[in-house]
Amino acid sequence: MQPIKLTLFFLFFFMFAKAQTKISGVLKTIKGTPVANANISLKNSYDGTSTDSTGRFAFITNETGAGLLQYSALNFEKDSVQINMGSGNITINLTIKEALNQLQTVSISAGSFIAGDGKKGAILSSLDIATIAGSRADIFAAMQTLPGAQTSFSESGLFVRGGTAAETKTYFDGMLVKSPFNATVPDQASRGRLSPFLFKGTSFSAGGYSAQYGQALSSALVLESTDLPEKTTTGISILSVGAGVDQNIRFKNSSITAGGYYYNLSPAYSLIKQQHDYTKPPEMLGGNFQYKLKTSETGMFKVYASYSRTQLALYSANIDTPAVPKYFSNHNLNIYINSTYKEYFGNRWKLETGFAYNKDRDAGLMTVNDYSRTDHLTEGKATLTKSFGQLSNFKFGAETFNTGRLESLNGLSRKYNDQISSGFAETDLFLTNKIVVRLGMRAEYSSYLQKYNLAPRTSLGLKTSVHSQLSFAYGRFYQNPEDEYLIIKPLGFEHADHYILKYEINTTDRNFRIEGYYKDYNRLTKISNGDPTNTGSGYAQGFELFWRDKKSIKNADYWLSYSFLDTKRDFRDFPMMATPTFAAKHTVSVVYKHFIESLHTQFGGTYSFASGRPYVNPNNPVYLADKTQTYNSLSLNVSYLTHVLKQFSVLYLNINNVPGFNQVYGYQYSANGLNRQPIVPAAKRDFLIGIMITIGDDTFVR
Amino acid sequence: MKNLTKSITLILVLISLNSFAQNVNPKFSQAIKTGLDMVAAAKGGEDYLKAENYFERIAAVETKEWIPSYYSAYCNLYAGYNTASKELKDQYWDKALQEIDKANALSANNSEIYALKGALEFMKMSVDPRSRMYFMGNSAESLEKAIALNPENPRIYLIKGQDTFYTPEAFGGGKEKAKPILESAVAKFAIFKPVNTIEPNWGAESAKALLAQCK
């Protein structure tokens, strides 16, 4: 036993005899601010300590010789310094560099409004969009509560910063959606076809958007679809206007979703007095199918396909001959397919490819005339992105659209077809964590127009403090004239230049932004003597404010938008520069949501205001000089969370224009100018009641 | 001869110990124990951050051990509980999720790691529930996986019970619903035997305390 004891003794002796070194000092930032709770460690040893609130540290080590003293802290870059131990105590003052932190890093932000789940810079979530009172889960109606967009109820689409609805384009996973709206009724806005629940991210850009997006003069609505659903569920919705069912089937690495719906507005229209006299209230039947496959840890393949048919027929008032109301009927057929594949590979490369097909057919009778119109779009796209540095990237890609229209009236038909091919390249360069520059370029060639265009885009972000940022963007945007003109003859591209300046303050619970812009429109399509030309032009300038607060009122969340718009155009059949009918000078929206836990209920309200819009009065020698009364709307909704047959359910009620404000969008004049009738909403008040049941999940969100 | 037998026995014992407890590095397990003492004595966010730093230092040396990264993540979870700042919560929990991924890479299919991951994902959701509902799905998925790997892991039921307890009734939570889950947590804690002195063995007291509040 003796030798063992001896060994142990020597071992201990040796350990104690080892030279102890005390390492101490202060850790500060480059600016001299002490860094607390930093980790100070000795490489290849457990020895080390944490800094205190004044950045001081001290620890004792038994290591000797050369060593590496490492130091790291949250939001700072890990660093190290060589030291030599064993020859006396070491006092060392360290400085540490700030690291790029998500919250404190600048972003590309000018013009855009990001709504998304867990997205950097996201202001709204997909749930926020679906639960805005008055929007009834319509993405486009929800976007009208954001700054830059006009409130419109007599025409489908988003009218952004003085642009027409045709100047806003919708993209589904990067692919252009040619016909994003339901079948149209004269002088009424239709809902969007795509459900907000399909998407995890929505980015609404009112200008200055990326070179990835072409053929949009004023605005881009970029929708990003959800990934695999978490579990197998069945969703049933029963509404006062119809019913739908969808089945999610989740496999290990893939999922299938199949759904169908049937809407018939005749019961609702028998209760709610409609402006038009329907002989066939809208009836809609449709289905959709989705397949998603996780091809690898980072790869994803998606297919979305939908089909729908709508029928409607109505008589609308005829201002010229009141005894003979105007007949209108429409059979609409819409097919949409979108398929994308995304994968990361090699040294920080990302590949995205996509294919989309859209066909939209309207046919029916307009008074006594047989009409039909078929729009189509086939698109292929591929984008490669290379990331470099901590945040920077370079992307380039190509896409091609085959698009066109075929229309006929009483058996006479005409059509046009265009192949638009384009290439783009863009880089987001983070010069520091406080400065980012985006430089992009897009080139397009249209086979029908037989013309090229080259569109430079640039955007700049400058972080002014932890929570605030200044942004600037300039870009040139091209778009083909609308189908109704192109079918007459090929023209040239229309174009617009955007200049945007934005300042924003964002914290977790509050957002403030102010954005000013100037837009210069040129080569807009103008009809002179029935002949379309590219001689139109126009401008738009204004500023917008946005404020959101999720904190001040408990369980409540609200946002306010204000838009000021000064715009004039000389386009379409305008005889001169004038403010178009869709442009109100002042627009205000207030969205409020309040969850009352004890009642299991969320209450929501949306108030919208718009100053008077110009309308054409043939009796006034000055064109578009008259203005409608101001527009006011107050909508309320209630969502009650409950269980029906032990399944999680939401009982939902939405009422539009609760106080019954008189809403006038404009006037239609008789040919002789003596009589007029106001263009008003489909119904003074409108309500929707429904229940949504989810089987197979115990939480209310699908 | 006697000595030889002794020596052989000793060697055998040492070998068997080695293979049983894989990491018989006594310096390592002692270090973890010291860290667990720091956690037990922690009084506020700062203390958890110090313990987190401590485990991180061990993790940097013991690059094959999942335990230090697991406890780093655990400390960050508690550091997040102990701050009112949503920004800090997010940063601590983001870091914790990275540490959990690190632990997972070292010890695949570990019920404890998935349980803690599920807890962290749930807390990430709670910072901004309206816009982070998708974390709910991630959390449920992680906890399901933890159950599939070891249905007797009591911490899964504590975490599920906690999540349910703090979820409003309207969203499928509440005390009533949490009670049976916490009861099974307490029952499972009563029979739970940790693999060794340094593997996860926390939560029994929290489960009891929370269950008491359900009555």
TrEMBL record, chain A:
Entry keyword annotation includes Metal-binding: no
Signal peptide: 1-19
InterPro entries to which the protein is assigned, alphabetical: CarboxyPept-like_regulatory
Record key words, sorted: Signal
A Pfam family assignment: CarbopepD_reg_2
Name of the protein in question: TonB-dependent receptor
Taxonomy of the source species: Bacteria, Pseudomonadati, Bacteroidota, Sphingobacteriia, Sphingobacteriales
Automatic annotation (TrEMBL), chain B:
InterPro entries (alphabetical): TPR-like_helical_dom_sf
N-terminal signal peptide: 1-21
Keywords: Signal
Signal found in the keyword field: yes
Protein name: Tetratricopeptide repeat protein
Record lineage: Bacteria, Pseudomonadati, Bacteroidota, Sphingobacteriia, Sphingobacteriales
Species of the source: Pedobacter cryoconitis
Domain of life the protein comes from: Bacteria
